[in-house]
Each structure stands twice: as C-alpha cells, then as structure tokens.
Amino acid sequence: MLGFIKKHKRSFFILFLFALMFWLLTVQVKSGRFSFMERPVLAVSGFFERTITAPFRFVGSVVDGYVVLVHTERENRRLKEELERLKLENSATNEILLENERLREALGFKKYYPPTSVVAQVIGGDLSPSSSTLTISKGSGDGIEKDMAVITPSGVIGRIQLALQGTAKVVLLSDPGSTIAVRVQRNREEGLLEGKISHCALKYVSYYADIQEGDLLITSGMDGLYPPGLPVATVVKVTRHEASAFQKVVAKPIVRFSRVEEVLVLRK
Amino acid sequence: MKPRVYLIILLLLIPIQASLFNPLSLGGIKPDLALALIYIIGLLAGPGEGALAGMGIGLLQDIGSAGLLGFAGFTRGLVGLLSGLLGRQVLNISSPSNIVFLVAFSLVEGVLTALFMQIFFGSVPFFRMFFSRMLPQALYTGLLGIILLRLINDKRMLGRIRRRTLKKEL
Fold first, then answer.
1. Predicted local confidence at residue B54, as pLDDT
2. What is the pLDDT of residue A244?
3. In this structure, how many other beta carbons lie within 10 angstroms of the beta carbon of residue B126?
4. Which of B11, B13, B19, B85 is the mutation pick for testing A, counting most A CBs within 10 A?
5. Sign of the alpha-carbon dihedral angle for A201, A203, A207, A213
6. Is the whole model's pTM more than 0.80, yes or no?
7. A-chain residue closest to B66, CA distance
8. For residue B124, what pLDDT band results from cuts at 50, 70 and 90?
9. Residues 65..124 of A with a Cβ closer than 8 Å to B: which?
10. Chain B residues with beta carbon closer than 8 angstroms to that of A49
C-alpha cells in the first residue's frame, strides 16, 4: 500500500490539490469570499497593467490630439450648439433643484448633498470565467474607498471592491456576487438586481407586479451604496410561472462594459 | 518547462489578458488566453504539469478577480490534466483537431461555470448565456489557440521544449 502511494505520490498530490480547491469553494459559499493575497496580486498586476496600457494610451492621445484634426471645426460647432442647449436645460434643472430643496426644507427632510466624483481610466478587464471585474487607474490616493459606486454618464457600472494607492478593482453589476437595489422607473416597483455574468436577474418581484420588456431599471438608493435614480439595466425577458410567487426577470445592463474607457467613482 | 518560464507567465498573464486583449474584444467577447495557454502547456508537458500549471494560473485569476477562490483553479486544473492526457495518448501539437478540443474544453468550462452558479446562486439564464457568451468565446479561444500553436509549432521552438521535457523525464 505504502509502495503504491510512494509510486504515485505526484498523482496523489494533484488529487489532493483538486480536493483542496473544491473544499475551498464549498467553504466560501457558506462564509463568503476569501480575500487571500488579493492586495499583492492587485498591486503587481495593476503595475503591469498601467505599464502595458501606457504606450497605447499615449499613442491614442496623440492620434486624438494631433492627427484627427479633419473634423475638428464641424465637431467644435456641434459641441458649441450642444453647450448652448445644455446651458438652457441646466438653468431649468437648477430651478427645479432649488424648488426641491425649498420643499424638502419645508417638509423637514434631510438636506441632499450630491456626491462628488473622481474620473478614472479603465486599465484592465475580465480575468476569471466566474466573475466580472475591471481595474481602474486611480485608488486610495485619490480618495477612492471600498464600496463606492462606479458609474459612466450612461449608467451604473458597479462598485469598488478593493482600493490600493494607484489602482482599484471594480466589481461589475454582472458579477454573481453583485446585488443592487433597483426600481422600475415606469411604476416604481422595487426589486434586487443580481449579476449573472452575461446578464442580470431581477429578484423578489411579486407574481402580480407589472413588469414589461423594455422597462428601465434605476437605482432605488435602498442599499445605501448607490445614489437613487441612476440608470442600471433594461428588462429583456419576463417569465411568470403559476407555481412560483415571483416572476423571473432577465435584464441587460445599460452600459456595455467592454467599451468603457473612463468611469466616474462617486465619493460618499 | 523551466520555473522561470512559469514565473514570467504568472507575472504577465493577468496584465496581458486584462489590458492588451481589450482591443481584441468583439461584441464584449474576448479570447481566453489563459485557457489556451494551459491547454498548450498540458499538451507539451503532460498531465501532471498541465494540471499544476492550470491550478496555479486559475488560482491567480481567482485572486485577481471577484470570483470565489478556487473555482478557476479547479476548472483550469482539469483542463490542464485532460489536455495532458490527450497529448500523451491521442494528439500531437500540429494536429488540426486541437481547435476542436480547445473549443470543447472552453465550452465545458462555461457549462461548469453556469452549473456552479445555478447550484450556489440560483436561476441562471443558461441558453442566453450559452449563445451570447460561452459559444462565441469558445470559438474565439479556439482560434487564438490555433494561432499560438502555429507559432509554437516552429520546429526550433518545439524541439527546444521537447528536449527539456524529455531530459526531465529521463
């Protein structure tokens, strides 16, 4: 017996490692993800990601800044027109904001402080088949902390999972460990949006709730992580089973994560 | 393969996969460099080394991502082991069947991921995930694998790797 084990010790060692991995998985399902060695790995990979992407970013900025001047005048005119339109819209919005503040004060509501933001560049993408993350070029040195919301002008991206000095890791809303409190913009129905890698699922929506394909889901702010009213996802499929008390709702994130180059991190 | 080759792979794989492969993304789908590399390591170095390399690379990917620690380590270890067995018994590095096996391994890993998520996190839109992510990614990874294998198939490089493996076995 001992001779057999000695002869196949390498095979037994590999078998032991497989069993160890499986045991690790089952333990984490119960007690949550281990963050073993996370900081050193992010520090090393973040350094290499910044180094590798730097020449590409430089070439990109040179191309954007000097070579592609052909459409500049037309673009400038279009932007000026858009600026005028936005100025008009902004003054109307400011009026509504002031009115809202006065009404909140009259009703004794807590004063609303809009969050400030930090702009960061995306320097890395997905790594593991079972999760969805991004690496960004700013970290704790710029005031970024764990669980801060990460957005683009189009909608929510996710939240900060880990922040180091010059890098941070963002968990995307399509990650299986991500949950966001959302509501349907059309009728204010609430639910929890869970990541499912390629899509998201809206959980705990009553069988009788009015959810339709094409509905826009926005943050409700109930989770305390994301400010309310930010666009998150669009409903793409609704299934009702009479045996279940809840509907099965599949949603697609508004933001296409593969095309994101810059993000805004909302400071608390 | 030499330990320093593995060290370089471990140091550079995550940054290359995470940043350099972004421009290769088609509709949000990127080829899986790590999987292709583990398949090739298994094919060249045998099941034992393939499994260990797969587990090491997978574990590093788990640590660098937000996933549960050990998932990619487990599935990629299996890929390394199976490709090593295939390399021993059936395939050689220049065989065109490699693309089929690499696509199949990538698909099996995708199905395992979906199964795992279904068991531990509930309700996975499997068919949507299969056609929108797993299948295109598997095909893309297969294509990348074939390109890598063509590069390695250069007789001088292959000869060098084989000599090293042979020396170790002797």
1. 94
2. 83
3. 15
4. B19
5. negative
6. no
7. A131
8. confident
9. 123-124
10. 14-15, 18-19
Domain extents in chain A: 179-255
Report the distance separating Cα A261 and Cα A25, nearest Å: 33
Per-residue pLDDT, averaged over A146-174, amounts to 91
Instruction: For domain A179-255, give the CATH superfamily.
Output: Rod shape-determining protein MreC, domain 2 (2.40.10.350)
**Closest to B72 (Cβ–Cβ): which among A56, A129, A133?**
A129
Euclidean distance between CA atoms B52 and B76, whole angstroms: 9
Q: Scanning every residue of chain B, which has its alpha carbon at the shortest distance from the alpha carbon of A30?
A: B120
CA distances in angstroms from A102 to A91, A99, A106, A108, A111, listed in the order given: 17, 5, 6, 10, 10
A240-263 pLDDT tens trace: 888 888 888 999 999 988 888 889
Q: How far apart are the first and last CA of chain A?
A: 62
Q: Which chain B residue has the Cα nearest residue A137?
A: B19
Instruction: Report d(CA B157, CA B164) in Å as an integer.
Output: 11
| pLDDT given for residue B160 in this prediction | 62
Q: What is the C-alpha to C-alpha distance for residues B58 and B46, in angstroms, rounded to an integer?
A: 18
**Left, alpha or beta for B53 (phi > 0: left; psi -120 to 50: alpha)?**
alpha
| A42-62 pLDDT per residue, tens | 888 888 877 877 777 777 777
Measured between alpha carbons, how far is residue B117 from residues A100, A209, A235, B29, B55 in Å?
44, 26, 21, 20, 20
Angle, vertex CA B14, rays to CA B12 and CA B15, nearest 5: 70
The domain segmentation of chain B, as residue ranges, is: 3-13+32-169
Three-state DSSP state, A195: strand
For residue A262, list its beta bridge partners: A121
Residue A58 contacts residue A65 (beta carbons within 8 Å): no
Inter-chain residue contact B15 with A48, CB threshold 8 Å: yes
Confidence of residue B162 (pLDDT cuts 50, 70, 90): low
Residues of A in contact with B107 (CB under 8 A): none
Cα angle B8, B9, B10; round to 5: 90
Residue B120, number of CB atoms within 10 A of its CB: 16
8 Å CB contact between A42 and A36: no
Q: Which residues contact B107 (CB under 8 A, 6 or more apart)?
A: B134, B135, B138
CATH class of B3-13+32-169: mainly alpha
Provide the chain B residues 55-114 that lie in CB contact (below 8 A) with chain A: 55, 58-75, 77-78, 81, 109-110, 113
- Residues β-bridged to residue A169: A135, A162
